[in-house]
Amino acid sequence: MGISFTVLSSGSTGNATVVRNEDTTLLIDAGLSAKRIDELLKERDLSGEELDGILVTHEHSDHVKGLGAMARKYNLPVYANEKTWFAISNAVGQIPDDNRRILETGATREFESLRVESFGISHDAAEPVGYSFYDGAEKLSVATDLGYVSDKVKQAISDADVLVLEANHDVEMLRMGRYPWNIKRRILSDIGHLSNEMAGAILSELLTGRTKRTYLAHLSRDHNMMELAKLTVRGAMEDRGCFYKDSEFRLCDTYYDRPTPWDKVSES
Hints:
The structure is a single chain. The chain is α/β, with parallel strands linked by helices. The protein is built from nine helices and 14 strands. Residues 13-191 form the Metallo-beta-lactamase domain. Counteracts the endogenous Pycsar antiviral defense system. Phosphodiesterase that enables metal-dependent hydrolysis of host cyclic nucleotide Pycsar defense signals such as cCMP and cUMP. Pfam families: Lactamase_B_2. This is Phosphoribosyl 1,2-cyclic phosphodiesterase.
């Protein structure tokens, strides 16, 4: 079977992704209400009873809004590093000690035949992380909420068959937007969010022929549009000498209001 995934929702209003293989199904973040997550799961022919656990990237509400409710409703173990657990403890309500699992930054955990590797990222949270998933030779990496991409992050997500990467904002749209300057400054900082241009620059470094698809994720509804994001990312790649045919590599959409189709990592 290999790795399959669907991005249930992506953006500032809520984030959740499902990654599964033949014997494990994991939810990455639960940034919407439990009711809404259940609805999105149903759209992809899944139910909460089929989940084996929840991985948390960081404590911001658009990533943990429904975490406590989902964990209690389906008696799910929740995995996060210690600093993130401390940061979310008051926000997610009571979770039984047996279901509060520690997955430290940089650690690897085996979920049957699905291997999960945590890696640290730069964002204004207690100890934010991204995740890479492995099944045999297959690799899927998920990296959003990045102020910038460090060499360690590049190493962690390099050679992924499929990558879910942040392309949060168009810089000029953000600068001209309605947010107060202190919020704009935070978003543009090294602990903020990755712009379209920066996402393209990173992809131009990472594309080695193995990565077949990149899903552009966590787009701002106020300061970005998917077609603009794809155009800017492609342009930034071409400016750096990285040219490709759509048959060799594709930029794929994510949505804030509906899930992406199931995607098999092994598919070309």
